[in-house]
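can u pls check wat happens w/ flavin mononucleotide
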Amino acid sequence: MTTEAPSPKTAITLCGSLRKESINEPLRRLMSNKLREAGVEVTDLDLRDFDMPIFNQDIEETGETPEAAKRLADMFRSYDIVFIASPEYNGGVTPLIVNMISWVSRQKPNPFKHAIFGIGGVSDGKYATIFALSHLRDSLSKLGALVVPTLLGIGPYPDVFDENGEPNEANIKWKVGQTVRELTHFSRGGI
Ligand SMILES: Cc1cc2nc3c(=O)[nH]c(=O)nc-3n(C[C@H](O)[C@H](O)[C@H](O)COP(=O)(O)O)c2cc1C
């Protein structure tokens, strides 16, 4: 019988907006903090560090797949948890997220079958990114990802976080905790 302590779970968190004052970046930070409190080793990602041109199949056919797509695909294949905070644009997700998923989905072996995925978003509208999150869940599921049941939609902004970055509303606090519980409870890996 082994006496070694189990290694902690690992996570990456990323934000689907590059805007300097993004209202989704605080959600990404909050989830990183909450996952750390739950014992997860978290790596904070910034999609600015994963530059990818607008997807065009001609680019991959000439062998010019961006190195960033391969790097991100490797991370999706090796981390236990991926959390994406995305704004809602016109009832869907942002071009940044669609483009990132397009490029990563073309990498082999399938980068979406390893991690447990959590998704959330902050909106200035009262529907709290729920249309975007439904789209995102469908798209990730279509790729073989396991997305946790709680969709962490938050809004309308402002007044959703306090000065410490914690949710103001009790039901959002609960939803954040529930998302962390789901992300850490399930595991997949080895695929
Ligand atoms: C092109 C565009 C489309 C938008 N569509 C929606 C929408 O469908 N629903 C919504 O709640 N907010 C929508 N918004 C408002 C966003 O919630 C708001 O701009 C938010 O601050 C974007 O997230 P960010 O601050 O993380 O960049 C839209 C904003 C833009 C720029």
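The chain has six helices and five strands.
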